[in-house]
Amino acid sequence: MPLKTVIYCGVCSFPPEYCEFTGKIKRCRAWLHETHPELFQKLYGDLDVEEAAAKLAGSSIGEEREEKLEKDLRKLQAKQESREQRELAKKLSSKVVIKREARTKRKCMIAISGLEVFEIDMKKLAKTFASKFATGCSVSKNAEKKEEIVVQGDVAEEVEAYIHSLLEDKGLKDVKVEVVDAKKKKKPTTTPAPAA
Amino acid sequence: MFKKFTREDVHSRSNVKSSVQRTLKSKLVSQFPKLEEVIDELIPKKSQVELIKCEDKIQLYAVDGEVYFFQNFNELIPTLKFVHKFPEAFPTVQVDRGAIKFVLSGANIMCPGLTSPGANLPDAPGLEKEALVIVNAENKENALAIGRLLMSTEDIKSINKGHGVELIHYLGDCLWNFSVE
Protein backbone atom coordinates (compact mmCIF):
# COMPACT_ATOMS: atom_id res chain seq x y z
CA MET A 1 0.00 0.00 0.00
CA PRO A 2 1.43 3.36 -0.98
CA LEU A 3 1.79 6.27 1.34
CA LYS A 4 -0.57 9.16 1.02
CA THR A 5 0.58 12.71 0.71
CA VAL A 6 -1.92 15.05 2.22
CA ILE A 7 -2.07 18.63 1.09
CA TYR A 8 -2.24 21.08 3.94
CA CYS A 9 -3.89 24.45 3.62
CA GLY A 10 -1.36 27.24 3.46
CA VAL A 11 -3.60 29.54 5.43
CA CYS A 12 -4.82 27.46 8.35
CA SER A 13 -2.47 24.43 8.03
CA PHE A 14 -5.36 21.93 8.17
CA PRO A 15 -6.24 19.51 5.41
CA PRO A 16 -8.43 21.65 3.13
CA GLU A 17 -11.62 19.74 3.94
CA TYR A 18 -11.47 21.08 7.49
CA CYS A 19 -10.97 24.71 6.47
CA GLU A 20 -14.65 25.44 7.02
CA PHE A 21 -14.21 24.91 10.74
CA THR A 22 -11.43 27.39 11.23
CA GLY A 23 -13.33 30.56 10.49
CA LYS A 24 -10.82 31.57 7.85
CA ILE A 25 -12.60 29.83 5.03
CA LYS A 26 -12.62 32.77 2.67
CA ARG A 27 -8.87 33.08 2.64
CA CYS A 28 -8.48 29.31 2.62
CA ARG A 29 -10.68 29.07 -0.46
CA ALA A 30 -8.69 31.73 -2.25
CA TRP A 31 -5.49 29.96 -1.41
CA LEU A 32 -6.76 26.57 -2.53
CA HIS A 33 -8.13 28.01 -5.73
CA GLU A 34 -4.76 29.43 -6.57
CA THR A 35 -2.51 26.54 -5.62
CA HIS A 36 -4.61 23.42 -6.09
CA PRO A 37 -7.42 24.16 -8.56
CA GLU A 38 -8.37 20.50 -9.04
CA LEU A 39 -8.82 19.95 -5.32
CA PHE A 40 -10.76 23.17 -5.10
CA GLN A 41 -13.11 21.88 -7.77
CA LYS A 42 -13.59 18.67 -5.87
CA LEU A 43 -14.32 20.32 -2.56
CA TYR A 44 -16.27 23.37 -3.53
CA GLY A 45 -17.23 23.00 -7.19
CA ASP A 46 -18.57 26.21 -8.62
CA LEU A 47 -20.56 27.15 -5.59
CA ASP A 48 -20.04 30.16 -3.43
CA VAL A 49 -19.28 30.00 0.25
CA GLU A 50 -22.68 29.30 1.72
CA GLU A 51 -23.95 26.94 -0.93
CA ALA A 52 -20.76 24.99 -0.61
CA ALA A 53 -21.26 24.71 3.10
CA ALA A 54 -24.74 23.43 2.54
CA LYS A 55 -23.48 20.86 0.07
CA LEU A 56 -20.67 19.73 2.31
CA ALA A 57 -23.16 19.13 5.03
CA GLY A 58 -24.58 16.03 3.39
CA SER A 59 -26.93 16.27 6.31
CA SER A 60 -27.03 13.22 8.45
CA ILE A 61 -27.42 15.04 11.71
CA GLY A 62 -30.84 16.49 11.16
CA GLU A 63 -31.78 19.85 9.80
CA GLU A 64 -32.14 21.55 13.09
CA ARG A 65 -28.67 20.70 14.26
CA GLU A 66 -27.23 21.43 10.87
CA GLU A 67 -28.71 24.90 10.98
CA LYS A 68 -27.30 25.50 14.39
CA LEU A 69 -23.91 24.29 13.29
CA GLU A 70 -23.95 26.58 10.31
CA LYS A 71 -24.91 29.49 12.48
CA ASP A 72 -22.08 28.72 14.85
CA LEU A 73 -19.63 28.44 12.03
CA ARG A 74 -20.71 31.75 10.63
CA LYS A 75 -20.33 33.34 14.01
CA LEU A 76 -16.87 31.86 14.34
CA GLN A 77 -15.97 33.21 10.94
CA ALA A 78 -17.15 36.70 11.79
CA LYS A 79 -15.21 36.58 15.02
CA GLN A 80 -12.10 35.41 13.29
CA GLU A 81 -12.38 38.09 10.64
CA SER A 82 -12.77 40.89 13.11
CA ARG A 83 -9.85 39.54 15.06
CA GLU A 84 -7.69 39.46 11.97
CA GLN A 85 -8.66 42.99 11.14
CA ARG A 86 -7.81 44.14 14.59
CA GLU A 87 -4.47 42.43 14.44
CA LEU A 88 -3.69 43.96 11.10
CA ALA A 89 -4.61 47.40 12.33
CA LYS A 90 -2.40 46.89 15.32
CA LYS A 91 0.44 45.84 13.11
CA LEU A 92 -0.01 48.81 10.83
CA SER A 93 -0.15 51.28 13.66
CA SER A 94 2.88 50.00 15.49
CA LYS A 95 6.37 50.79 14.47
CA VAL A 96 9.83 49.39 14.69
CA VAL A 97 12.40 51.46 16.48
CA ILE A 98 16.07 51.12 15.70
CA LYS A 99 18.08 52.89 18.32
CA ARG A 100 21.70 53.74 17.97
CA GLU A 101 23.51 54.00 21.24
CA ALA A 102 27.01 55.30 21.63
CA ARG A 103 29.53 53.28 23.49
CA THR A 104 33.13 54.25 24.03
CA LYS A 105 34.83 56.54 21.52
CA ARG A 106 33.75 55.61 18.02
CA LYS A 107 31.98 52.45 18.98
CA CYS A 108 28.25 52.07 19.19
CA MET A 109 25.53 49.49 19.25
CA ILE A 110 22.08 49.14 17.76
CA ALA A 111 18.98 48.16 19.67
CA ILE A 112 15.94 47.09 17.69
CA SER A 113 12.61 47.04 19.48
CA GLY A 114 8.98 46.73 18.50
CA LEU A 115 9.39 43.56 16.49
CA GLU A 116 7.32 41.28 18.66
CA VAL A 117 4.04 42.49 17.12
CA PHE A 118 5.04 41.14 13.74
CA GLU A 119 5.51 37.53 14.77
CA ILE A 120 9.17 37.56 14.01
CA ASP A 121 11.34 35.06 15.79
CA MET A 122 13.72 37.34 17.65
CA LYS A 123 16.30 34.71 18.44
CA LYS A 124 16.52 33.59 14.86
CA LEU A 125 16.78 37.13 13.57
CA ALA A 126 19.52 37.86 16.07
CA LYS A 127 21.40 34.85 14.77
CA THR A 128 21.05 35.98 11.16
CA PHE A 129 22.24 39.47 12.06
CA ALA A 130 25.21 38.06 13.88
CA SER A 131 26.33 36.06 10.88
CA LYS A 132 25.33 38.71 8.34
CA PHE A 133 27.29 41.52 9.93
CA ALA A 134 29.88 39.34 11.61
CA THR A 135 29.24 40.95 14.96
CA GLY A 136 27.88 40.04 18.32
CA CYS A 137 24.11 40.06 18.43
CA SER A 138 21.68 38.97 21.09
CA VAL A 139 18.18 39.26 22.40
CA SER A 140 17.75 41.03 25.69
CA LYS A 141 15.12 42.76 27.73
CA ASN A 142 15.14 46.54 27.71
CA ALA A 143 14.01 49.05 30.31
CA GLU A 144 10.32 48.52 29.54
CA LYS A 145 10.74 44.78 29.99
CA LYS A 146 10.25 44.16 26.31
CA GLU A 147 12.47 42.06 24.17
CA GLU A 148 14.87 43.79 21.87
CA ILE A 149 17.69 42.76 19.62
CA VAL A 150 21.06 44.25 20.39
CA VAL A 151 23.68 44.35 17.67
CA GLN A 152 27.26 45.41 18.29
CA GLY A 153 28.53 47.84 15.70
CA ASP A 154 27.24 50.67 13.57
CA VAL A 155 24.86 48.85 11.26
CA ALA A 156 21.66 50.87 11.65
CA GLU A 157 21.20 51.46 7.93
CA GLU A 158 21.74 47.86 6.95
CA VAL A 159 19.41 46.71 9.67
CA GLU A 160 16.78 49.15 8.51
CA ALA A 161 16.99 47.92 4.94
CA TYR A 162 16.82 44.32 6.09
CA ILE A 163 13.79 44.86 8.28
CA HIS A 164 12.04 46.70 5.49
CA SER A 165 12.50 43.76 3.17
CA LEU A 166 11.43 41.38 5.92
CA LEU A 167 8.21 43.26 6.51
CA GLU A 168 7.54 43.49 2.82
CA ASP A 169 7.74 39.73 2.62
CA LYS A 170 4.98 39.62 5.18
CA GLY A 171 2.89 41.98 3.12
CA LEU A 172 3.24 44.89 5.49
CA LYS A 173 4.72 47.58 3.36
CA ASP A 174 3.61 50.68 5.19
CA VAL A 175 4.98 49.88 8.60
CA LYS A 176 7.16 52.62 9.92
CA VAL A 177 10.73 51.85 10.72
CA GLU A 178 12.29 54.62 12.70
CA VAL A 179 15.95 55.18 13.29
CA VAL A 180 16.73 57.02 16.47
CA ASP A 181 20.08 58.33 17.55
CA ALA A 182 20.46 58.22 21.26
CA LYS A 183 22.28 61.00 23.06
CA LYS A 184 25.33 62.41 21.36
CA LYS A 185 25.61 62.16 17.65
CA LYS A 186 28.77 60.59 16.59
CA LYS A 187 29.24 59.27 13.17
CA PRO A 188 26.89 60.84 10.60
CA THR A 189 29.56 62.97 8.95
CA THR A 190 32.85 63.15 10.74
CA THR A 191 33.78 62.55 14.30
CA PRO A 192 32.88 65.69 16.22
CA ALA A 193 35.50 67.63 18.01
CA PRO A 194 36.18 66.31 21.48
CA ALA A 195 34.67 68.30 24.23
CA ALA A 196 37.12 70.87 25.47
CA MET B 1 -2.58 16.70 26.39
CA PHE B 2 -1.31 19.31 24.02
CA LYS B 3 -3.72 22.10 24.66
CA LYS B 4 -0.94 24.05 26.22
CA PHE B 5 2.45 23.27 24.89
CA THR B 6 5.14 25.66 23.85
CA ARG B 7 8.75 25.79 23.02
CA GLU B 8 9.49 26.47 26.66
CA ASP B 9 8.28 23.02 27.58
CA VAL B 10 11.12 21.45 25.65
CA HIS B 11 13.85 20.32 27.98
CA SER B 12 16.38 18.71 25.73
CA ARG B 13 16.85 17.53 22.21
CA SER B 14 19.19 14.87 20.97
CA ASN B 15 19.69 12.66 17.98
CA VAL B 16 19.05 9.01 18.64
CA LYS B 17 21.40 6.21 17.74
CA SER B 18 20.52 4.02 14.82
CA SER B 19 20.20 1.03 17.13
CA VAL B 20 17.61 2.90 19.19
CA GLN B 21 15.91 3.87 15.98
CA ARG B 22 15.68 0.18 15.06
CA THR B 23 14.07 -0.75 18.35
CA LEU B 24 11.67 2.15 17.98
CA LYS B 25 10.64 0.92 14.59
CA SER B 26 10.07 -2.60 15.79
CA LYS B 27 8.06 -1.30 18.70
CA LEU B 28 5.89 0.71 16.35
CA VAL B 29 5.32 -2.34 14.20
CA SER B 30 4.41 -4.46 17.19
CA GLN B 31 1.87 -1.86 18.24
CA PHE B 32 0.44 -1.36 14.78
CA PRO B 33 1.16 -4.53 12.77
CA LYS B 34 -0.06 -3.07 9.51
CA LEU B 35 2.76 -0.57 9.54
CA GLU B 36 5.25 -3.28 8.78
CA GLU B 37 5.24 -2.95 5.03
CA VAL B 38 5.67 0.81 4.98
CA ILE B 39 7.76 1.47 8.04
CA ASP B 40 10.95 1.64 6.02
CA GLU B 41 9.37 4.20 3.78
CA LEU B 42 8.06 6.29 6.65
CA ILE B 43 11.26 6.13 8.62
CA PRO B 44 14.07 5.34 6.22
CA LYS B 45 17.22 3.83 7.60
CA LYS B 46 19.20 6.87 6.61
CA SER B 47 16.90 9.35 8.29
CA GLN B 48 17.84 11.13 11.45
CA VAL B 49 15.46 10.59 14.32
CA GLU B 50 15.51 13.25 16.98
CA LEU B 51 14.30 12.78 20.51
CA ILE B 52 12.77 15.84 22.12
CA LYS B 53 12.17 15.54 25.82
CA CYS B 54 9.50 17.79 27.23
CA GLU B 55 7.68 18.75 30.37
CA ASP B 56 5.59 16.06 32.10
CA LYS B 57 7.72 13.23 30.74
CA ILE B 58 6.44 13.65 27.24
CA GLN B 59 8.90 12.59 24.60
CA LEU B 60 8.52 13.59 20.98
CA TYR B 61 10.25 11.80 18.17
CA ALA B 62 10.94 13.81 15.06
CA VAL B 63 11.97 12.20 11.81
CA ASP B 64 13.82 14.59 9.54
CA GLY B 65 12.34 17.61 11.23
CA GLU B 66 8.75 16.42 11.41
CA VAL B 67 7.26 15.17 14.67
CA TYR B 68 5.96 11.71 13.81
CA PHE B 69 5.12 10.17 17.13
CA PHE B 70 5.39 10.76 20.82
CA GLN B 71 5.51 8.81 23.99
CA ASN B 72 4.11 9.57 27.38
CA PHE B 73 4.69 6.39 29.31
CA ASN B 74 5.36 3.24 27.44
CA GLU B 75 3.09 3.47 24.46
CA LEU B 76 4.04 5.22 21.25
CA ILE B 77 1.33 7.49 19.91
CA PRO B 78 1.48 8.65 16.31
CA THR B 79 0.86 12.29 15.44
CA LEU B 80 -1.70 13.34 12.86
CA LYS B 81 0.96 14.10 10.29
CA PHE B 82 2.01 10.47 10.57
CA VAL B 83 -1.54 9.17 10.55
CA HIS B 84 -2.42 11.14 7.43
CA LYS B 85 0.33 9.42 5.54
CA PHE B 86 -0.91 5.93 6.25
CA PRO B 87 -4.32 5.88 7.93
CA GLU B 88 -5.07 2.21 7.21
CA ALA B 89 -2.76 1.02 9.92
CA PHE B 90 -4.71 2.38 12.85
CA PRO B 91 -8.07 1.51 14.38
CA THR B 92 -10.57 4.20 13.46
CA VAL B 93 -13.79 5.62 14.78
CA GLN B 94 -15.90 8.15 12.96
CA VAL B 95 -17.85 11.05 14.39
CA ASP B 96 -20.78 12.88 12.85
CA ARG B 97 -20.57 16.33 11.40
CA GLY B 98 -22.00 18.08 14.40
CA ALA B 99 -19.13 16.91 16.56
CA ILE B 100 -16.29 18.17 14.39
CA LYS B 101 -16.43 21.66 15.75
CA PHE B 102 -16.06 20.51 19.32
CA VAL B 103 -13.38 17.99 18.56
CA LEU B 104 -11.35 20.70 16.86
CA SER B 105 -11.46 22.74 20.02
CA GLY B 106 -10.17 19.80 22.01
CA ALA B 107 -13.26 18.36 23.68
CA ASN B 108 -13.59 14.72 24.60
CA ILE B 109 -15.97 12.89 22.33
CA MET B 110 -19.33 11.99 23.77
CA CYS B 111 -20.97 8.69 22.94
CA PRO B 112 -23.92 10.06 20.94
CA GLY B 113 -21.47 11.65 18.52
CA LEU B 114 -20.08 8.20 17.86
CA THR B 115 -23.38 6.37 17.44
CA SER B 116 -25.51 8.74 15.35
CA PRO B 117 -26.23 7.94 11.67
CA GLY B 118 -23.28 9.94 10.38
CA ALA B 119 -20.85 8.27 12.71
CA ASN B 120 -19.27 4.88 12.54
CA LEU B 121 -17.79 2.44 15.00
CA PRO B 122 -15.96 -0.76 14.22
CA ASP B 123 -18.21 -3.85 14.15
CA ALA B 124 -18.29 -6.34 16.99
CA PRO B 125 -16.17 -7.45 18.77
CA GLY B 126 -14.88 -3.91 18.40
CA LEU B 127 -12.13 -2.34 20.41
CA GLU B 128 -11.26 -2.66 24.05
CA LYS B 129 -11.27 0.11 26.58
CA GLU B 130 -8.02 2.14 26.67
CA ALA B 131 -7.32 1.37 23.02
CA LEU B 132 -5.77 4.08 20.93
CA VAL B 133 -8.01 5.24 18.09
CA ILE B 134 -7.81 7.82 15.37
CA VAL B 135 -10.89 9.91 14.91
CA ASN B 136 -12.27 10.48 11.48
CA ALA B 137 -15.26 12.56 10.49
CA GLU B 138 -18.28 12.07 8.32
CA ASN B 139 -17.60 12.83 4.63
CA LYS B 140 -13.99 13.65 5.37
CA GLU B 141 -10.99 11.83 4.11
CA ASN B 142 -8.40 12.62 6.73
CA ALA B 143 -8.30 12.09 10.44
CA LEU B 144 -8.89 15.06 12.71
CA ALA B 145 -7.88 13.73 16.09
CA ILE B 146 -6.29 10.94 18.06
CA GLY B 147 -7.75 9.70 21.27
CA ARG B 148 -8.08 6.89 23.74
CA LEU B 149 -11.26 4.94 24.33
CA LEU B 150 -12.76 5.52 27.75
CA MET B 151 -15.06 2.53 27.29
CA SER B 152 -15.05 -0.32 24.83
CA THR B 153 -16.82 0.29 21.53
CA GLU B 154 -19.48 -2.25 22.44
CA ASP B 155 -20.19 -0.32 25.62
CA ILE B 156 -20.40 2.91 23.68
CA LYS B 157 -23.04 1.35 21.48
CA SER B 158 -25.11 0.00 24.36
CA ILE B 159 -24.72 2.69 27.01
CA ASN B 160 -24.57 5.64 24.64
CA LYS B 161 -23.99 8.22 27.31
CA GLY B 162 -21.07 10.22 28.64
CA HIS B 163 -17.48 10.46 27.46
CA GLY B 164 -16.53 7.90 24.87
CA VAL B 165 -13.10 9.01 23.72
CA GLU B 166 -10.52 11.00 25.59
CA LEU B 167 -8.82 13.32 23.16
CA ILE B 168 -5.05 13.28 23.05
CA HIS B 169 -4.08 15.19 19.96
CA TYR B 170 -6.21 17.09 17.45
CA LEU B 171 -5.91 19.33 14.41
CA GLY B 172 -4.87 22.78 15.45
CA ASP B 173 -3.56 22.01 18.91
CA CYS B 174 -0.14 23.10 20.06
CA LEU B 175 1.57 19.93 18.93
CA TRP B 176 0.07 20.32 15.46
CA ASN B 177 1.45 23.84 15.29
CA PHE B 178 4.74 22.88 16.86
CA SER B 179 7.65 23.03 14.48
CA VAL B 180 10.95 21.50 15.34
CA GLU B 181 13.01 24.29 13.93
Automatic annotation (TrEMBL), chain A:
Residues 96-167 form the SUI1 domain. Keywords: Coiled coil, Cytoplasm, Ribonucleoprotein, Ribosomal protein. It comes from the Eukaryota. It is found in: Cytoplasm. GO terms for biological process: formation of translation preinitiation complex; translation reinitiation. One of its GO terms (molecular function) is translation initiation factor activity. InterPro entries: DENR/SUI1_TIF, DENR_C, DENR_eukaryotes, DENR_N, SUI1, SUI1_dom_sf. GO terms for cellular component: cytoplasm; ribonucleoprotein complex; ribosome. It holds the Pfam family DENR_N. Residues 59-86 form a coiled coil. Belongs to the DENR family. Interacts with the 40S ribosomal subunit. The SUI1 domain may be involved in RNA binding. NCBIfam families: DRP1 (TIGR01159). This is Translation machinery-associated protein 22.
Automatic annotation (TrEMBL), chain B:
Transmembrane segments: none annotated. One of its GO terms (biological process) is formation of translation preinitiation complex. InterPro entries: MCT-1/Tma20, Pre-PUA, PUA, PUA-like_sf, Uncharacterised_CHP00451. Involved in translation. Keywords: Cytoplasm. It is found in: Cytoplasm. Belongs to the TMA20 family. GO terms for cellular component: cytoplasm. Pfam families: Pre-PUA (PF17832), PUA (PF01472). Residues 91-172 form the PUA domain. The keyword Disulfide bond does not apply. This is Translation machinery-associated protein 20. CDD domains: MCT1_N, PUA_MCTS-1-like. NCBIfam families: unchar_dom_2 (TIGR00451). GO terms for molecular function: RNA binding.
